[in-house]
């Protein structure tokens, strides 16, 4: 806590006193712990991507628009009542007509692993800017809590690696988006690996203002995230735990695999905001 006293420049100084008193909240705050299970995988086309194993990424979710009856964005399960996605994904959606699909792999078939959960509320980051596309993150509260199992479970949030430098690291992006710019959507969940690149290199290439604190840039040859992949996760395997952490969210790009870096929301700076807006939740921090 920083306390300051502003005075007139001609003041001779003086003293002041204050009292700090802790006030208990009537609401229980969200917490995170390591005594939990997250980021596990059933290991077994994003542009030039490869199909994932069936329910390989148990935390992968999709936002379903009940009007178009299709997955319009990706999302990630982070607790039994919340998913996170990109703020721009919910701009044209409303709670009453939106659901979250979990345990999905192939949208053209039905399986017992797949569930569809109605949404209760949306909350975008308060400083989200649709023009600059910064702070592109949103929380979605589910109408009913989900039960974790072998096919559905939370991603690890990056509490343990929040201050790590990931430039040069490889992340995996996931989605049911188009397999080329303006092309058809994939019915099967696809994955591809991208490299996190230097922000200055990204700024020079895109000739735009990229925020090194809240954004990541990713690129790889002939592969990329694409339309309708937005909001989906950038996942990274923490070498200390061998578990998947979600370190970012797909935000925007210039075409798909056109040789330009894609810009993604970096998750670590928003962890406190997530805790502050998910009262009573427990998050996993392996």
TrEMBL record:
Record family assignment: Belongs to the peptidase S1 family. CLIP subfamily.
Gene3D superfamilies, alphabetized: Trypsin-like serine proteases
InterPro entries associated with the record: Peptidase_S1_PA, Peptidase_S1_PA_chymotrypsin, Peptidase_S1A, Ser/Thr_Proteases_Immune/Dev, Trypsin_dom, TRYPSIN_HIS
A GO molecular-function descriptor: serine-type endopeptidase activity
Pfam family of the protein (one): Trypsin
Peptidase S1 domain mapped to chain residues: 46-279
Official protein name in the record: Peptidase S1 domain-containing protein
GO terms under biological process: proteolysis
Keywords from the named record: Disulfide bond
